[in-house]
Amino acid sequence: xxxxxxxxxxxxxxxxxxxxxxxxxxxxxxxxxxxxxxxxxxxxxxxxxxxxxxxxxxxxxxxxxxxxxxxxxxxxxxxxxxxxxxxxxxxxxxxxxxxxx
Length: 101
Description:
Elements: H1 6-19, H2 21-33, H3 41-48, H4 52-64, E1 69-72, E2 78-81
Antiparallel strand pairs: 1-2
């Protein structure tokens, strides 16, 4: 069985960051949402340096891929990753929704 060493993982993540910024961005969004706190569209978009519309498309892509992201509207609302659910995951770009790539 092959075991990933740290250097291999770093190289693969660097490849993703360089060649698949949308996928890397969605990974960062998932990581942020996994902290158990609610995050607004504006906050997440600013952190990722994309428009709110691009953030919405990323959230839609993640949901389509099976990530249980809950959206709450209103004051104090935002997005949160539900603790339980199917996490099949496919972070590869799904269509042309990249920004600044």
